[in-house]
Amino acid sequence: MPTVVTDTLVEPSVIYAFVLALAFVGVVGTPLSIALARLLRVVDEPGGRRIHARPVPLLGGIGIVVGVLLGTAPNLPLNDAFTAILIGAVLMCALGAIDDAVQLSPAVKLTGQVACTLLPIREGVTIDQFTVPILGAVDLGPAAAPVTVIFIVAIANVVNFIDGLDGLAAGLCAIAAGTFAVLAVSLDRGTTAVLAAAVAGACLGFLGWNFHPARIFMGDSGALPLGYLLATMSIAGVMKTAAALSVVFPLVVLLVPIVDTSFVVLKRLKYGRPISAADQNHLHHRMLRLGYSQRRAALSLYAWCAVLAGFALAVRFLDYRTPAGDWHLWPTVALAVIGAVAVSASLYVVYALEILKYRHVRLIGFARRVDVGGEVPLSAHRRSEQRDEVASGS
């Protein structure tokens, strides 16, 4: 089976890729995408679950993908694996653009996404082995290809699901790709680092046009290839290493969109709705209902994602344990503190967005058994308790 070439590139190539993609998408690619969307009348109209008040052009992903190609082409020695990754991204973008224009059925979209993943898998971009604590190296054997298909398609749709707020998907993908670039450099995965830097630059270039009030949306033509690229670069740059916690890095960095999608899918299953049916149960929708502005909601989710990315980087760079298994005190303390901050930020989001119901807390024994409705959010119940305490005190 072909394998991914793990050549080491110098850091300037990573910087050049970032700058080229950023400049192209920010100055040329996005304005051209706006013009193309208007020419073809591929515009997202307001109404229904949508939260924008005026028609906004789609197809922003075309400029993003072209920017990634321009950022990578002069800065990395292409091998069969990364050529396949880039061709797959172009095809994923085309699939998304067609869906933006004519609304493909979920079955057709899923079939197309699976077909796009087969290109890099054929060239050895597979989750054939990863390293986890205690267990060590885990070899998937014959399950490598199907697991890889599921992983890439899942991450592509995770990004697509969260693209419902001005600037949200672009900002989260920029943070994730930038983190993968740093991790890939540290793991001597230079080609992956260049690709990740180009993705980060393209997302930031697009964000200037997409942050609220958005002048263009990336649409499926952007969300699907971005999710696909994040998945493939995490496989090629992080999972195919002997680094401890290699399987954890991508999951931590992408935890925000993963949590959002998981919550939405479980809600739809609970109420018997199709998984592909759009609704307003995403994290950003809950933030807007609680009074957040679009900008504040996006910035809050950026901050959460950045904290988690910081934890992943701390795990990689803090020298908390020797190869012999001895622990270093202060790096271990620092990692514990950063981990506590990441966990606290995640719990705060769950509490602030009223995701956790009071009955869930009561079920595991962390709340008094009082007569409270099963669907009352924990934060709402706490506010009710505080009002009762104030009233009794007065």
TrEMBL record:
Its EC number is 2.7.8.-. Mg(2+) binds at N160, D220. Keywords: Cell membrane, Magnesium, Membrane, Metal-binding, Transferase, Transmembrane, Transmembrane helix. It comes from uncultured Thermoleophilia bacterium. PROSITE patterns: MRAY_2. One of its GO terms (cellular component) is plasma membrane. It is a multi-pass membrane protein. CDD domains: GT_WecA_like (cd06853). GO terms for biological process: cell wall macromolecule biosynthetic process; cell wall organization; lipopolysaccharide biosynthetic process. GO terms for molecular function: metal ion binding; phosphotransferase activity, for other substituted phosphate groups. This is Undecaprenyl-phosphate N-acetylglucosaminyl 1-phosphate transferase. It is an enzyme of class 2 (transferase). It holds the Pfam family Glycos_transf_4. Its cofactor is Mg(2+). It is found in: Cell membrane. The chain crosses the membrane at residues 15-36, 56-73, 143-162, 169-187, 193-211, 223-239, 245-266, 297-318, 330-353. InterPro entries: Glycosyl_transferase_4 (IPR000715), PNAcMuramoyl-5peptid_Trfase_CS (IPR018480).
